[in-house]
Amino acid sequence: MSTIGFNHYNLRAPRELMNQLKDFYCEIVGLAQGQRPSLESPGYWLYAGDQCVLHLSQARPDEVRLTHIATTFDHVAFTCTDRPEMEERLKQHNVEFRRSKVPSLGIAQLFFKDPAGNGIELSFAEDQPV
C-alpha cells in the first residue's frame, strides 16, 4: 500500500459555527458547495474545482468541540490564482492576513484564520512582490 494523494480534511462544529465556516470557505476562500451523500449528521462538502477538499460536519448536541486551545494543527494550504483579487476580497470582508513568500519556489503566500481559528494558507505561483 502507498499513499497516492490528499483526499480531504474535516472540520466538525456546532451547527451555527459549521454554517459560518461554510460561508467563509465559499465566500472568502473560493470553495464551492457541492454534492454530498445522505449521511447521519448534517453537513457540507466543499470543492476546489472538481475535487472535494473540505468536509464540514455538525457536532452532536452533547459533543464539546474546543476552539480556543493550541493543537498540533497549524494550517491547511490551497493553491490559488490572482493574489491581488484575493487580497482585496480579504480586505472587503475584514479578514486580517499576513503576506509571505518562498522565493526559491516562486511562491507568494497569504495566511489568515477561519471563524473557528484554524490557519489557512493561500499559495500563489507568481513573481509579483509580496
Report on this structure.
It is a single chain. The radius of gyration is 16 Å and the shape is globular. The protein has 2 domains: 1-60, 2,3-Dihydroxybiphenyl 1,2-Dioxygenase, domain 1; 73-130, 2,3-Dihydroxybiphenyl 1,2-Dioxygenase, domain 1 (Roll), CATH 3.10.180.10. By secondary structure, it is α/β, with parallel strands linked by helices. Strand 3 and strand 4 form a beta hairpin. The model has no long low-confidence stretch (mean pLDDT 91). The strands form 2 sheets. Strands 1-4-3-2 form a 4-stranded mixed sheet, with helices on one face. It has helices at 15-29, 83-92; strands spanning 9-13, 32-34, 43-48, 51-58, 75-80, 98-102, 107-113, 119-125.
Q: Summarize the main sheet.
A: 4 strands, mixed
Anisotropy-based shape? globular
CATH class of the largest domain: Alpha Beta
At the third CATH level, what is the topology name of the largest domain? 2,3-Dihydroxybiphenyl 1,2-Dioxygenase, domain 1
Structural class: alpha/beta
Q: Total domains, how many?
A: 2
Number of distinct helices = 2
Q: Beta fraction of the residues?
A: 35-45%
The CATH architecture assignment of the largest domain turns out to be Roll
The sequence of SSEs as H and E is EHEEEEHEEE
Sheet with most strands: strand arrangement: 1-4-3-2
- N-end to C-end Cα span: 41 Å
Number of strands: 8
Average pLDDT metric = 91
- The CATH homologous superfamily of the largest domain is called 2,3-Dihydroxybiphenyl 1,2-Dioxygenase, domain 1
Q: What is Rg?
A: 16 Å
Helical percentage = 10-25%
Residue stretches low in confidence (pLDDT < 50, at least 5 long) are: none
